[in-house]
């Protein structure tokens, strides 16, 4: 895989197993490795020490209201080429949209794409909407529909995919192309349904550096909600922090909130995923695994010359037809 942008992007600069061996042999990094229990996966189910993670993220976005903290994720269309299919007419749900850095390249991919985007922070939503409005190269700005939701605690609104329509879609599967056009939406971010009870589900859900911010014990709920609003055959596109990423290894022991779960100094939460945990979480929610791998990127800090080894998890999952 490769990403876009001005420079080249590499996803296999080093072997993750070599990094794992190095970390697990280093006694100074033992607290990153040791599980709280000997029961494997169950160790990840320990309660988080940060029950109000969403409030910390709301404070974060209020402090970074200029939107400059996150760069546009231009690599997404190469990582997930389904979003850039020529002539695609579809509906996507972006979970945890932040300042809009993920929505921008998707909206540019084609005029037939409509994005619903949610976040727990009203400040983040305002920045995201302004970012889209100020982008000169995005036609039809009304294709971006942002709404406030703490998705780690609350279910998605039923106007995305109501229970009766979900049941009907299982009996009569639809393809992955939405018949909901851009002019069916009103400016208050609620759909104008013309007698319909919901928009009929979405073709794509994006979870890009979002699930790691949710307390681990709430992740199954979030994924269950994601699969519930996808059409049969729809795709969930996943990218997040991987196990033994550089940022994980920088956390001191006192900031450990659980197994592979840490709190930053500002109170925000970060979890670091292994492929095994991702597979269990997503397959446990009913998804079919299509792609799942580590992305290992080596870069150099130009200021101090230090080599940084970044690890992310790339995944693509499908709702059964």
Tell me what the structure shows.
The chain is of the alpha/beta class. The protein has one domain (16-25, 50-318): 3-Layer(aba) Sandwich (Rossmann fold), CATH 3.40.50.150. 26% of the residues lie in helices and 22% in strands. It is built from ten helices and ten strands. Strands 3-2-1-4-5-10-9 form a seven-stranded mixed sheet. Strands 6-7-8 form a three-stranded antiparallel sheet. It is globular, with a radius of gyration of 20 Å. The two termini are 27 Å apart. The model is unreliable at 1-8, 38-51 and 173-189 (pLDDT under 50).
Describe the structure concisely.
The protein is of the alpha/beta class and about 325 residues long. The protein contains 10 helices and 10 strands.
Low-confidence stretches: 1-8, 38-51, 173-189
Indicate the structural class: alpha/beta
Strand order of the largest sheet: 3-2-1-4-5-10-9
Number of domains: 1
Shape: globular
| Rg, nearest Å | 20 Å
Strand content: 15-25%
Look at the structure and give the mean pLDDT: 82
**Straight-line N-to-C gap:** 27 Å
Which H/E pattern describes the elements?
HHHHEHEHEHEHEHEEEHEE
Short key terms for the protein model shown above:
alpha/beta; S-adenosylmethionine-dependent methyltransferase activity; METTL2/6/8-like; tRNA N(3)-methylcytidine methyltransferase; 321 residues; 10 helices; disordered N terminus; 26% helix; methyltransferase; transferase; 7-stranded mixed beta sheet; 10 strands
